[in-house]
Amino acid sequence: MTEPRGAELLTGRELEVPADPLTERILDAAHEQLRSFGLRRSTMDDVARRARVSRVTVYRRFGTKDGLVSACLLREYRRFLADVDLAVADLPTVEDRLVEGFVVVLRHIREHPLVGGLLRLEPETMLPFLTVDSGPALVAMRDHLADRLRRAQPSLGGPVRDAEAIAELMVRITVSFLLNPEGCFELGEDGHAREFARRYFLPLLAR
């Protein structure tokens, strides 16, 4: 049986990297390599050495360095989403959960040792992975948020129209603030981020 290539790992609606021990080992190695040396100074050979596998195995799994980086970042984004769900689970309303989720995402990504570190130190290198090459991550985050909006429909008194479009708009706005925080919106403090989300995100839920 041949190993799946990067294109197969990172396309399709589910966007799942195979959850087998070898893949996890390679992604763990990539995480440590990127965290220690950044994107520019890291190679597929470096990751293969850390994972104690051949470079051929890494290439067969992920196709290219960009494919490996995308898979590594996608795994981190999925972990973010699980952390966000946990952080907002006890809040009483969907509006509160949406607002606090925005705050948690901004704070978590900024403070994350890999993603936040790369955004601070190599923003120009990270840019494609959050824009033109961000398809898998964007879809994963959009679908996750759209699912949460649909689940909240009973408490909102009816269906959320265009849940997927609303979710994508929210994700794109959040990413833009992470890439370029300078502007007329001051979101550096949690209170300001909450105010922004209440003022600009919650009206999108209006039926």
Can you describe this structure?
α2 crosses α3 and α2 packs across α5. With 207 residues, the protein is mainly α. The chain is built from 12 helices and no strands. It has one domain (6-205): Orthogonal Bundle (Tetracycline Repressor, domain 2), CATH 1.10.357. The chain starts with 5 loop residues before the first helix and ends in a 6-residue tail after the last helix.
SSE layout and pairings?
Blueprint: H1 6-10, H2 21-37, H3 44-51, H4 55-62, H5 65-88, H6 94-111, H7 115-121, H8 123-130, H9 135-151, H10 153-156, H11 163-179, H12 190-201
Domain HTH tetR-type: 20-80
DNA-binding region: 43-62
Keywords: DNA-binding
- The CATH superfamily bears the name Tetracycline Repressor, domain 2
User: Which range does the strand content fall in?
Assistant: under 5%
User: What structural class is derived from the secondary structure elements?
Assistant: mainly alpha
CATH topology value: Tetracycline Repressor, domain 2
CATH class term:
Mainly Alpha
The end-to-end distance, rounded to whole angstroms, is 51 Å
- Regions with little confidence, pLDDT below 50 for 5+ residues: 1-16
Average pLDDT, to the nearest integer?
84
Characteristics:
about 210 residues; mainly alpha; Tetracycline Repressor, domain 2; about 0% strand; globular; disordered N terminus; transcription cis-regulatory region binding; TetR-family transcriptional regulator; DNA-binding
